[in-house]
Here is the input.
Amino acid sequence: MKKSKTIIAILLSLSMVFSMAGCGSKSGTDETSVTIEKPKSNADKMKRFDPEITLTFNKTEWVTNYPEGQDAQSNVMYDMWEEVIGVKVINSILCPASTMTEKMQLAIGSNEIPDFGIVDATMMDTLIKNDMVEDLTDVYNEWATDNLKETVGQSNNALFAPVTRDGRYMGIPLYNSLSGSYPVMWMRSDWLNKLGLEVPKTMEEALDIAMKFATEDPDGNGQKDTYGLYLDKDLGGLDFIMSAYEVYSGDNYWVKNEDGTFMAGCTDAKAKVPLKKLAELYEAGAIDPEFAVKDTAKEEELIAAGKLGIYIGYFFSPLGVMKDCVKNIEGADWVAVKMPPAEGIESYRPGIALNVNGYLYAKKGLEHPEALIVMMNHLCDGYAAPYLAKEPTDFYKKYNELAQIDEVRDAGANNLMPFQMEYNTNWGDKFVEAIENGDEHVEGKDADYQNVISTTLPEETSWSWKKVYLEGYLALDFENVRYSDYTGAPTDTAVKTQSLLTKQKLTDYIAIIMGEQPIDYFDQFAETYNNIGGSKIAEEIKAAVK
Here is the structure.
């Protein structure tokens, strides 16, 4: 009888435990997953943890000039997170980006990963396979604010693809702005004027202009010493030219066919058209004959020397070597041109990688996985996309107060934080509007705005800041991008062969452009590419997406 009473007592105790677990929301489906409470209101999603909680973190070291007396662990931004959010972040791993993978691998091997961290898709795949991270689906769905869901969920939740398993989110994408990867075509506007040319509306027109820049003496010195189009030994800018023809040739870029199979975008037969045009430019001397042996820095010397007319870069390119061109060459000027599509194609859609800085994970069994989402909520409304908030948040007010301190601004207020995010804000539109209104400040980008409206900067520096925000940004189109049809972790064959595949594409593309191989050699390239790993990766991808 005594034994029966004991069994009954145990069953009653277990019943009470399961009943209590049902009061909260279970993170994931594994029996070892933690149980959390649901937010009681929208305000709770922006709460401050009281009492405060402490979480360990893997911090990438970016700052080189900390304010006096501060470092990666003890600085005003870490203090701010603790004050505003009630989360004390401890950098249990602190290292440069170049060694973070090694440090995380060691932590995985010893089963001592930080409570949360930022990793790439490959590292996340390892964490998932080793059952080391929490399923964050329910935590995200319940705790994320509408603003965060709008920003993280851009492009129909495409950013989640690499960390989704069986429809569940095993990590949260740390979104970044598309502005840093969206191409802009920069052209020597003084050369356009000299030759009586207009900015191109199609890629064919752009490449025709490149030919004229090399053959019609745009600098007026009577010598054939100018080049139309920038290329370097890594074919910088080529993939963005290919995109105009709906060819997506970037490394690790996979295109899904109608029958459900996949192919590497660089093997698309449509690539023959732009490659043939580039071969014609090279033969005519419109591309530097030595491009195949010059790295970026060496090839950009042509820009600084005023000898190159078209450079496919980014909105911020004027802050680099283009500024040197304007300084060195009297009358030199550049204009930002929206990347044009090829003839017959409605709009330009560049093939770009997912705009993420990495993925946030929560360690398996973490007591407060919702803290990751609460931190992201504060960061979204207070830094990444403050205009989405109905009114300035405490995070926003405190961040901007600290960011005005000279030594904090010099160190990079955003880099001092544990992590950062950036939404697709077109600051060009905001700067133009602010100038038209005579505004003295632009919240969120005020340091750059001061550079744009400054009357004391050196002439070429002032020129570069104006070009970046009043032209470069305005050439971006966040609504038209194309991601790879497969964005998951590299397959087993990709890990083993990707470097060989990249080298094969580079070698054979250059051979075609330089006329060392005819355009029909492309078919042999595609066959070789697939034989050394492309076809096997495609099969593995097809199996993975099922």
Observations:
- The longest strand covers residues 87-95.
